Amino acid sequence: MTKNEYLAQLLKALENNGVSDAADIISEYEQHFVFKMADGYAEEEIVEKLGDPVMLAGQYERSLEPQPTLVKRILTAVGLFIFDIAAMILFILLVAWDTLVVVFSLASLLLSACLFGQLNVKALIPSMPYACAVTLGVSALAMAVLGGAAAIFFTAFLLQLVRSYRRFHHNAMASSAGKASLPLLTIYPQFKAKARRRLRAVVLTFLTLFAVSLVLAIILCILLAGHFAFWHEWGWFTTAGRPF
Question: What are phi and psi of 68, to 5 degrees?
Fold first, then answer.
């Protein structure tokens, strides 16, 4: 059974059960298919894991059993409120970390531009031959790209984590009210297969470039300084470095 066939049968079963928010439920399951297919699952595999659409729709049928008490719903809401406070602190820390990654990427890009252009604002960069500066500039540029890729991945992870937490929150309240739960969402970022391959290729390419350029820069510095401790020869840790 394909995705469209499954969702059509599920919608029909929901409507037969008199479920008022059938369209919203179908939308959630469409998103579930999208996420699972992005992880490499075939439509048939997802359908098999979800099970019979009629039985699934039966979970959303109004129950004839006594509904949960008001006390249970209040206790659930209070518990979630306390949990929300902890989750909010975690999200703030994650946003702060993501911001640091972005700042690191921008700082690496700025360092690369300074090394390429022989710009040394307030003598923050140690003096060195231009060949070494260019090679280190390539290494800094690679770091900037790697930092940008990390920021993209971490931002996607953070957004997916928020969506997953919102689904958990919804299901907890639905359970306390005697309603059926929606499918859980993974906390891992959901990239399309093409985007995932491109991101992986960028990371591997610039990681290799960073390693090669950094090793080459060290070798150049040693050769041009004529000493393994090139930083000492060029006076990097003194008040006035050797001019070039």
Answer: -60, 150
Residue 220's CB is within 10 A of a number of other CB atoms, namely 19
Instruction: Name residues whose C-beta falls within 8 Å of residue 147's C-beta, 6 or more positions apart in sequence.
Output: 101, 102, 104, 105, 108
Q: Whole-angstrom Cα distance, residue 170 to residue 174?
A: 6
Gap between the Cα atoms of 119 and 112, Å rounded: 10
> Each residue of 4-61: pLDDT tens digit?
888 888 888 888 877 767 777 888 788 778 777 776 778 888 888 888 888 888 877 6
Whole-model pTM: value is 0.70
Alpha helix segments (H runs only) across the chain: 3-16, 22-38, 43-50, 53-58, 70-117, 130-176, 193-225, 230-233
CB neighbours of 51 closer than 8 A, spacing ≥ 6?
Answer: none
**C-alpha to C-alpha distance for 57 and 12, rounded to whole angstroms:** 9
In this structure, the number of other CB atoms found within 10 A of the CB of residue 244 comes to 12
